[in-house]
Design goal:
- The protein has 2 domains: 281 residues, no CATH class; 104 residues, Sandwich (Immunoglobulin-like), CATH 2.60.40.10.
- The chain is α+β, with helices and mostly antiparallel strands and 466 residues long.
- It is built from 16 helices and 16 strands.
- The protein binds iron/sulfur cluster (2 copies).
């Protein structure tokens, strides 16, 4: 492959032809070095977890569920209901701050190692492509060559497999949203009975196919919002995949002794560019397109090995470590993110720990104050709202404290099913003779299976006659 000129890297994206404005298809070489091997193992574990996730159930309920349609969420077996959204929002906020902290320290480590886009693209789809169409050079030749039987066979096989894998990903994705039981129903029942689910699978499959067969690095370079944030999250103390310009420059073609010739260790072979899935030259410095996939580290280490130089010309390091020869420093910015994260996460964890299994609230029935009955009793009406935040049904009892009167529930036997939100009436009666003031404070004690779950302060209103 001809060596790529990247000196105009500031003027255009690596995958755009500056003259025509058209996309340049990237054919990255696969290099099987130490980091690639680690990533293979790590990706295999992640993929197993991802595909197995929706099928893992605890006490008959999914371990993870993100049902945005019915607003039902289960995270690590803990159910969350719409009433808990403030806790979820806080959890999400803590997670965002954690990402900011993590990125400011380790750069795009997530992108290179754990992002599903990179894992699927580099460790699944790219490998299938290599297996069917051959090396990067052979792939380019095939694309530029005439349409013959071999090209048709290879393209049909490759895209057929891409569709199958996209279909599997789409099903898994849907199972995380609607649950694996609902997914099985969609698959096993006639299409006409689950038209919405069937359409979702077709749409998701097409989107995933488009992402991995066509969009590829565009997702990381242009679409992904996390990628766009790098400019503000990274600084010269962030550890990123970096080229050691102190050691590598001045670069030049290999001569018998680089050192004697006054040259750095970079032999300008261009292999680090050839393996880059976003087509950049890491020797130009940290760039937004770099997804920290470590391919250039493996590539350069293989070159260093051949020329008997130590590995690590490209490695995980910060600009401060390379330019100023400093060790890693935990900067004020990182400390501020850490404090902010601990605070937010602390509030989130406390709210989660204090969350009651049965949420109860009582309000006076709208538009009512009190009612006098012919037998001389005075009545107040209240609305009791209950949410069962567990998967199991709960029996609820309501008692009264601090008022000389009696209490009656509209529903005699009050039971709230798992996940149910229920509203019922509460009637409180007092004899006229017992009412000594207009406002009579009292407490409503709500119990579930004999345990007090909530105590609500209320006021009984009534007339006073001298
Ligand atoms: S792979 Fe290493 S030696 Fe080759 S061009 Fe890149 S940095 Fe230089
Ligand atoms: S520069 Fe290196 S680490 Fe960054 S995307 Fe390219 S190959 Fe991966």
């Amino acid at each position: 492959m001809a060596k790529k000129d990247t000196s105009d890297f500031r003027e255009h994206l690596s995958n755009v032809n500056v003259k025509t404005g058209r996309r340049v298809w990237i054919y990255p070489k696969i290099i099987r070095g130490l980091f690639y091997k680690y990533r293979e193992w790590f990706s295999a574990a992640l993929l197993m977890g991802l595909f197995a996730g929706p099928w893992i159930h605890v006490n008959g309920h999914p371990l993870m569920l993100f049902n945005v349609i019915d607003r039902q969420f289960i995270i690590l077996g803990i159910p969350f209901f719409p009433q808990d959204f403030y806790i979820l929002a806080l959890g999400l906020l803590s997670f965002i701050v954690f990402i900011m902290l993590f990125t400011s320290i380790f750069g795009r480590l997530w992108c290179g190692w754990a992002c599903p886009q990179t894992v699927f693209m580099e460790l699944v789809f790219r490998r299938i492509e290599n297996w069917i169409e051959g090396s990067a050079t052979q792939q380019k030749k095939l694309d530029e060559g005439p349409l013959n039987a071999e090209k048709i066979r290879k393209k049909v096989l490759k895209h057929g497999l891409f569709w199958v894998i996209s279909f599997l990903i789409a099903n898994t994705f849907l199972a995380y949203i609607i649950g694996s039981k609902a997914l099985v129903k969609i698959i096993t029942e006639p299409v006409s009975q689950n038209l919405g689910g069937f359409i979702s699978i077709v749409v998701f499959t097409s989107v995933f196919y488009l992402v991995f067969a066509r969009l590829r690095e565009i997702v990381c370079v242009i679409i992904c919002p996390y990628g766009r944030l790098q400019g503000v999250l990274l600084d010269r103390n962030s550890v990123v995949v970096a080229y050691d310009h102190q050691r590598g420059e001045p670069r030049g073609k290999m001569v018998k002794s680089q050192v004697d010739a006054g040259k750095g260790d970079c032999v300008d072979c261009g292999l680090c560019i050839d393996v880059c899935p976003t087509g950049i030259d890491i020797r130009n410095g940290t760039q937004l397109e770099c997804i920290a996939c470590t391919a250039c580290i493996d590539a350069c280490d293989s070159v260093m090995d051949k020329i008997n130089r130590p590995p690590g010309l490209i490695r995980y390091a910060s600009e401060a470590q390379i330019a100023d020869k400093k060790t890693f420093s935990y900067t004020a910015r990182m400390k501020a993110y850490t404090v902010f994260f601990i605070l937010l996460f602390g509030v989130f964890a406390t709210l989660l720990a204090l969350r009651k299994d049965l949420q109860a609230s009582v309000m006076r029935s709208p538009g009512t104050t009190f009612m006098r009955q012919p037998d001389g009793q005075v009545v107040n009406f209240f609305q009791l709202k209950l949410t069962n935040k567990t998967f199991d049904p709960m029996k609820v009892e309501v008692e009264m404290e601090g008022l000389k009167g009696n209490l009656q529930l509209v529903e005699e036997k009050l039971e709230v099913a798992g996940g149910e939100h229920k509203s019922t009436g509460v009637i409180v009666r007092m004899s006229q003779g017992d009412i000594k003031q207009n406002s009579n404070p009292f407490k409503l004690i709500i119990k579930s299976d004999g345990e007090v779950v909530n105590t609500v302060k209320l006021v009984f209103n009534g007339p006073v006659f001298d």
